Amino acid sequence: MGEILKVKMLGGFSVTYGETPVIKEQSRESKATSLFRYLLANRDRIVPQEELIEVLLGDDDSANPLNVLKNLAYRARKLLTAAGLPEKEYIYAKSGGYGFTSSLPCQIDVEQFCEHWELARNTRDGEKLSHYLRAIALYGGDFLPRAYSQTWVMSRTVKYQGMYRDCVEQAFSMLCQREDYEQALQVADRAVTLYPYEEFYRLLYIFCLYQMGRTREAVSEYESTTAMLFDELGVEPSEEMRALYHKITGSLEHVERSLDDILSEIIETEDAHGAYYCNYQVFINTFRFVVRHIQRNGDSAFVALCTFTDQNGDPLPPEKLKAGVQAYHNAIACSLRRSDIYTRYSKSQFLVLLMKIDQENCRMVMGRIANNFRRFCRDKDIKMAVRYTSALAKRNL
User: Fold this and answer.
1) Range of 37's domain?
2) Which of 9, 56, 96, 392 is the least buried, fewest Cβ under 10 Å from its Cβ?
3) What is the pLDDT along the chain (397 residues), one digit of tens a residue?
4) Distance between CA atoms of 331 and 336, rounded to whole angstroms?
């Protein structure tokens, strides 16, 4: 049996012939590589010259695009022969278009992925799971990620993402029905690794931990997930995620433990420095407790709102906002005490609660934050506006 041309298109692009690399994953992009890639992705048909010119040369002002295309086909053929393949017309011209030969045995991951997805949907129940799991194993990530900006790649990426989600959802459901939570967790974990910002996959992962009796891990995963999604995307947990959290925490109420066990779990294990960062709901609860406390003993506390904009007061683009937020975290770390607390209220706003402080000292602290922020953030277009008031301001109205 002859050597096989192995092609990876999911999670990257590479081609090998036997053990010999034809195109390495980190190879420099070229028009010849793009042609080779497009013909491989459409090897079930002759691709018209007009289509190839539009896809490959759409932004070029070539006087003779047909000649350019002919030259690209020649260079693409050379990629194969340079890897040791016999001199043949692997890329051929026919009927006003180009195609990739069917005589060369090929193993293309995206074709195999689609094949197993189709088999899973159209086969008997007993074989469905194995096909879904095989498709999941083949899916190494987004389709041709380095070429994502190209329209044809973008549309296929979305299509394959949907197919992958279907595979994960169906396989996860079947595994849970069999109470095979170990493998279900592996399926969810792989999906989370590929798509860390997809709440759906994290929901499956947390649910699986809960079903396995790893309740405290599930709670910890929920907290880190919701914090990450809010910090990075500014989104709150879905109703489904919150419902799962209430179900998990509700189950903890039925477990009796000693006071020492509980204290060892809730106490900070590290000698943390600087203000305490928490999610918004924890901040609300802490704020309400502090207000009750200072009403009773006469202490004072101040709450501040820090807002990031550009110098014109308009919202910052994502990359600038990310830089501003990181600088703010750094500024807070070296500006506030351990007894202070802060949270992210929205994509561009933070709330700070300062304990046992008067108005003049609050003004000085906020000035210190502003100075340290400017030290960490060199981008002069990023502006931080600060407003502060007594924690009892609304109570005194």
Assistant:
1) 5-108
2) 96
3) 468 999 999 999 999 998 889 999 888 888 999 999 999 999 999 999 999 999 998 767 677 889 999 999 999 998 888 888 888 889 999 989 999 999 899 999 999 999 999 999 998 877 999 999 999 999 999 999 999 989 999 999 999 999 999 999 999 999 999 999 999 999 999 999 999 999 999 999 999 999 999 998 999 999 899 888 887 787 888 999 999 998 998 876 655 667 776 677 677 666 667 788 888 888 999 999 999 989 888 889 999 999 999 999 999 998 899 899 999 999 998 899 888 999 999 889 999 999 999 999 999 999 999 999 999 998 999 999 999 999 987 654 3
4) 9
Do 166 and 288 fall within a single domain? no
Residue 266 falls within a domain, yes or no? no
pTM: 0.74
Residue 344 lies in a domain: yes
DSSP secondary structure string, 223-245? HHHHHHHHHHH--PPPHHHHHHH
Residue 183: Cβ within 10 Å count = 17
Same domain flag for 99 and 151: no
CA dist., res. 376 & res. 226, Å (int): 26
Give yes or no for a contact between 351 and 266, defined as CB atoms under 8 angstroms apart: no
Residue 337 falls inside a structural domain:
yes
Q: Are residues 91 and 120 in the same domain?
A: no
**136 & 68 share domain:** no
Of 91, 108, 125, the domain-final residue: 108
Domain with residue 225: its CATH number is 1.25.40.10
Quick one: DSSP state of residue 62? -
Whether 338 and 353 share a structural domain: yes
Alpha helices per DSSP H over the chain:
31-41, 49-57, 65-81, 109-122, 125-138, 151-177, 181-194, 199-211, 215-233, 239-252, 259-266, 280-297, 318-333, 359-376
Domain endpoint, select from 201, 220, 252: 252
